[in-house]
């Protein structure tokens, strides 16, 4: 990490303060960025999710497994189903389920064909509020199983409570566990969640890797709006210089690319084998010593598995990082003490149900004075492999402007029968 905390720039200008509890410094886990969102001025940017900030995939996965170990202590050998929240916690939840060796499902923003969602709930403060559940086997929701809900951050706990309230109507049970990297609820929010659990007559526990509180001045939104308005227009995208190479798919059809419809032991085993095959082919093609594996929105776990294999096999001196594109609109500021130094902005290319819009890839282009990635590997599913991906101003053209070689691997998206 930089000697300057990557939340200091914004903390100084907006008067935001993060306090830590239990002896774990929350600034080691997150920085502070400006959201382009009228509902909330700031974003806690994780250092270890492999989302907005490219990270070592082995660190991402290893810390996620540690969260699973903490959840295991709370479950006390109880049967469980893990549910990860889209889009940032899809890989985090997968690793927790790996550690627990239990079934896994993640929520999705994507409407799936003619299928009817099993359940849905809202995330009010988000830029994209709807969460949908599409299990292909509703026996995953056996009422004798505890439900382990995994998110990267608990800010108020409202999203988790919304989900629990929805699930208690369609698949009630007595025990829920919420697991997160960072728990920033204050005493009022914690008390609210306890009262919520008592009202429903359930046992509800929270497990975290680090905890603290966020202190915001009362005029923080107005100050954030003024700060955003004062920023200069972003520089135009760099012209493409890398040749785009489409890599033949090494991911077998029928092997689940993620947990949108459920992920069981055999799915986990097959996905691991498929990821190693993808990595083996890419290892033959990659030439440079700075490699980024870039996932696509909810598709995070498979890219992390591929990146881990590439990192494990890498020669000394080669670095491998992983991150993902996102729907989250965040202001990029190329200044020390700020976590989102650069942004690639491009139109959505997966025909989203909520209509066209912009998507983002942060810290993929080099910050001022930094060395660019030599090789970028974009992993996405076939739903996102559309003409818009290849159009002028699209994601591929933007990525081709910030690296020497660009590889595209399209994974067959698993589609359950109706």
Automatic annotation (TrEMBL):
Record keywords: Glycosyltransferase, Transferase
**CDD domains (UniProt xref):** PRTases_typeI (cd06223)
Signal peptide positions (record):
none
Out of the domains of life, which is the source? Answer: Bacteria
Q: Which InterPro entries match?
A: PRTase-like, PRTase_2, PRTase_dom, TRSP_dom, UCP020967
Tell me the Pfam families matching this sequence. Answer: PRTase_2 (PF15609), TRSP (PF12500)
Name all Orotate phosphoribosyltransferase-like domain ranges.
30-212
What GO molecular function terms would the record report?
glycosyltransferase activity
Q: Does the keyword NAD apply?
A: no
Keyword Methyltransferase belongs to the record: no
Name used for this protein in its record: Phosphoribosyltransferase family protein
Give the organism, scientific name: Jatrophihabitans cynanchi
